[in-house]
Amino acid sequence: MSEKLPANAVVVESALREVGAQGEIVVLPEKAPTAATAAAQLGCEVGAIANSLIFDADGSPLLVLTSGAHRVDVELIARTAGVERVRRATPEFVRQATGQPIGGVAPVGHPAPVRTLVDNWLSKHEVVWAAGGHPHTVFPTTFDELVRITGGTPVDVE
């Protein structure tokens, strides 16, 4: 990569190499805090963007990697995860759990493993794009690789 990666993206890049992921981190010209902005810059369908959403699940972090085409049904996710309550996490909670900012949370590279659920819908796309630890970075992957590198559980999210 010719462009210098932000510090969080370097951590994610290292984590990707450690788990044998194939994709390289791409630095986008503009921030991509939403699936729509990422898809527009990448020239792909919004459904091929893996949104990394951190939830507070009874006080523990829960990462839901959902297709940009979906909204997460928190009641369904709570039942699936076997917890009482799932709610959107605060920016501080996200940073503490992942070491990364909202709008750039990668599926890997966290200080400690985070329980992960992966939206089955992402399997419909040959290439899936996930955040690279910073709002300007993403990397290509596949549904199967995403499940493997996160130790995630494939689920329906809506």
UniProtKB/TrEMBL annotation:
Residue ranges constituting the YbaK/aminoacyl-tRNA synthetase-associated domain according to the UniProt record: 30-148
Pfam families: tRNA_edit (PF04073)
Matches recorded under InterPro entries: YbaK/aa-tRNA-synt-asso_dom_sf, YbaK/aa-tRNA-synth-assoc-dom
SUPFAM superfamilies: YbaK/ProRS associated domain
Stretches assigned to coiled coil: none
Protein's name in the database: YbaK/EbsC family protein
Lineage: Bacteria, Bacillati, Actinomycetota, Actinomycetes, Streptosporangiales
